[in-house]
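Much of what follows relies on a compact textual record of a protein's fold. A record is reproduced here so that you can trace the correspondence yourselves:
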Amino acid sequence: MPFDRPLVPGILLRRYKRFLADVQLHDGQELTVHCPNTGSMKNCAEAGSRVWVDLNPRPGRKLPGTWELVETTPGGLACIHSARANAVVATGLAQGRITPLAAFTEIRREVCVEVGGSRFDFLLAGADGDCVVEVKSVTLALGGGIGAFPDAVSLRGQKHLRELTALARAGRRSCLLFCVMHGGITRVRPADEIDPVYGMLLREASAAGVSVLAWGVEPTPQGLVLAGQLPVELDQPAGGS
């Protein structure tokens, strides 16, 4: 999945007001660009980090570009543009490259499967039925190849897990797919130290039959490369019951 334009390197000066970032480009120019990530961006927004931005000034646009990549302290590039996770997954599903879901040939996006329920990222269908899929973008690297989700308490993520669990218990196939947008992550676990409720609900979901998968993405300044499946570690945290 190539970027639309070559990315421009720079240095992060600060990220603020959630959606804004000040960067200094390689030529010394300082710009305020869009930060397309609503999370805490823990370990991904440290001042002085190398970043890459998509510069696309055009009439009517308030900011001259979008922050796309960052080089993180544990090592490896991360794509902080969280919406790109769904785009990468959609491409992987269409090409049959996410092998546990390759049997599903019909792909619908942004589907509400229960009245009053959440809108899930994908509803897949095939000869043997359908599968509800919710995608979560993982960028929090803890070092040693370990990645964790979420990077802040996620009430929305908790709600998704409860609904996926209810679907699984009702006999409907459901899947939580961690899209790992960080080249330095080789395995994923719930961030119990940040959101213990999410970790508890994720383990309950897995026990109820929700398929919990993680798929790696290798970010580069040229584009995002879908890699392969990564292990998900659901062991109870130390002191857990």
In short: The radius of gyration is 18 Å. The chain has three helices and 15 strands. The longest helix spans residues 155-169. The helical segments are 83-94, 155-169, 196-208.
